[in-house]
Amino acid sequence: MVHPLPGFVLLALAAAVQGWSGAQPTRRTALDEIKKLAFTPFVTLLPSDVLAVTSTPISASWASVDGLNSLESEKKFVSFDKSAYNAMVADQSRTPLFEEAIINRLKSAEGGPESQVVLDLGTGPFALFAIIAAKNGAGKVYAVEASKEEAKSARETVKKLGWEDKITILEGFSTDITLPDGIKADFAVAEIIGSVASEEGAYATILDAHRRLVKNPTDPKNWIPSRVQTYGAPASYSLQNLFLPPAFDWTRLNGEPVRFNCRDEGLQLLSDPIVVEDVSFADIDSKGVAKKRITYRVDGDRVEGNVQKFREEFKRGRLPQDEADKLAVATANSVSGIALWPRLILSDTVEVNSRHYPDGGHQRSHWQTVLPIMCPEPVPVKGGDAITVDFDFDVPSSVTKPASYKISGTVLRCSLFAIPS
């Protein structure tokens, strides 16, 4: 909907968008704020100038288990098949960095690596990080795995490699387990991070381990990772532009997000990424997971670069040149939703990024980029437009209750028109 706005409406709009407090803004300050928000070239305003604002609502909501494998038929907890575990092990942007962080932590122990009791939360079928800890001198490793099948596989792997004396596999959710003789671990390894960081139950798992299973849980050095984040940015999506209604009804996804390989050029970002979820394991009790409002501004340089990327993408799909050119421009100048992906801070010196940091560029990763489709068809945008979004992530303290995610907001396009006298 397009609205030509007189002066008094400009004041209300600026106040609403910018969250003004205190004195009522003047018409001039309101226009200045709108100009900052839209980030578009403006000329000196005359009394006859009219600001046209196009406002389009966008939204999506889903549960963490939607579209993913679940450990139970009731779909309460995300689980994985063997191919997914193999991809995790082979991920060179992940596994070697976890290994480095574990070795560094063992070497830093005052009593030496052999003095350390290590807790591996979500050890998987290969007990990968538990074995790394044992190989590098840990005195004892307790490896927890919720899946009965994967716990059995982990025991077989540990036995085959001869680490039964140092590694004990504990089957079940860590929230239901007490370590033998009431012992607590010196540090915990927890690679239970989803493509939306909290979607695999990390918050509830660490909250419980913080209270019961780790000796000094307020020291960030006692957690690997010590902090997890979800980054987000508005994104253009090639297929939503290629398959428009009524040929394809995107609302039939019912909020379930599309999940992309992090190298997939069919998704391109429209602005710089911003942290939308940030959980520090050392102070998880006090902070939890908060709601957040973010205003993104569409980056004209990104849009221009994305045109060429989409052109190549459509040409690979064997579209005729003219059609590929036209569709590339339309796609690059549109938003389909807010793309999400995880970042893990393992220690002061080691980080894991599923997309290139800090610009969110494409790279190889076993994690995916999650894109909730937030509109029935792509919303047109241009450089300088504003996309204001509220993130409402309900991340429960029970590991068997799936997290739920809601993103809602507005795409705001501002254009200035001069009315002929």
Explain what you see.
- With 421 residues, the chain is an alpha+beta fold.
- 28% of the residues lie in helices and 28% in strands.
- The chain is built from eleven helices and 19 strands.
- The strands form five sheets. A five-stranded antiparallel β-sheet has the order 1-2-19-18-12. It has a five-stranded parallel β-sheet with strand order 5-4-3-6-7, with helices on both faces. Strands 8, 10, 11, 14 and 15 form a five-stranded antiparallel β-sheet that branches.
- A hairpin with a 5-residue loop joins strand 14 and strand 15 (351-353).
- Helix 10 packs antiparallel against helix 11 (321-332).
- The radius of gyration is 25 Å and the shape is elongated.
- The model is unreliable at 1-25 and 37-44 (pLDDT under 50).
